[in-house]
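Researcher: Please translate sequence to structure tokens.
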Amino acid sequence: MNYPSISVVMPVYNVEKFVSAAIESVLAQTVEDFELIIVDDGGTDKSIEICASYDDPRIRIVAQSNRGLAGARNTGILEARSEYIAFLDSDDSWHPEKLALHKIHLDNNPQVGVSYSGSRFMDNDGTLLRQMQRPKLARVSAKDIILRNPVGNGSTPVIRKTALRQIAFFNRDEPDRICFFDETFRQSEDIELWIRMALTNGFKFEGIDGLLTNYRIGSGGLSSNIAAQYESWNRVIAKTKQNAPEFVEQIENEARAYQLRYLARRAVQMGDGAFALSLLKDSVNKSSSPLLKEPIKSVLTFLAATTARYLPSNIVVKLAHSWTGGKVLA
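Model: Translation complete:
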């Protein structure tokens, strides 16, 4: 049997507006011997009808009851036939050469377990923004991952299956089912896995040059979502502390400061300047490291939060659109 070079795992749940662009970005890859495993996570819209309309033998649709993103990825990993597994969220898309470049990287660097790259941001309409993620690419440690998550988002990594096998575990509620991502997390499941991999196996995290993922950031939202995201991140820290208490104790305050600054930027994106300023205050109280190590980014976050807090919303929207080149505020 001929196995594909790369297995692409794409969870799908109520994304009918975006899923075609995601699929077409996979079909446009310069590497042609891939399989695209679409995991139907029990959505209620027309997403899966759209997926099923593509007549390509490389596409497989696997259905399950809703388990969330972590559970859908676990199902996709178990279905994957390739030694290399790429993840693509169904509202994101890829540069045509992404899989080819990661395959070259992994083929020539057997010590690398997780290969990733930078990303461009795009808005809900698919307009590419001026902002981007340019992560640290080399000499990546567990500390780098917990502080700054260089992998960046769930649509950037291509992972060696042997690295995933080393951190696999049996599901607590379904003892016969193998898991990789922790399904008790509905947010932060990716950073939990990256930290666990960095602390427990010998494979390296290493990035390659290029902005190869288009990562969608939605406009608007609720501040309660940020609180839920912080609560989930706190669960990651608590779980990691159980397994590596000395590691977490050394960097917890610094890591918390970076996370609070990140959430402040999310609050600005939602137009909640007051909440953003409160988060920035908490960040500085935990550690001055983000301000000292990344002063420009920290100051720009403060200025954006202040603008969102004190200027009329219509002016804030115009300034945000001018700065980003797209629609990032509702």
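Researcher: Any highlights?
Model: DSSP finds 13 helices and eleven strands in the chain.
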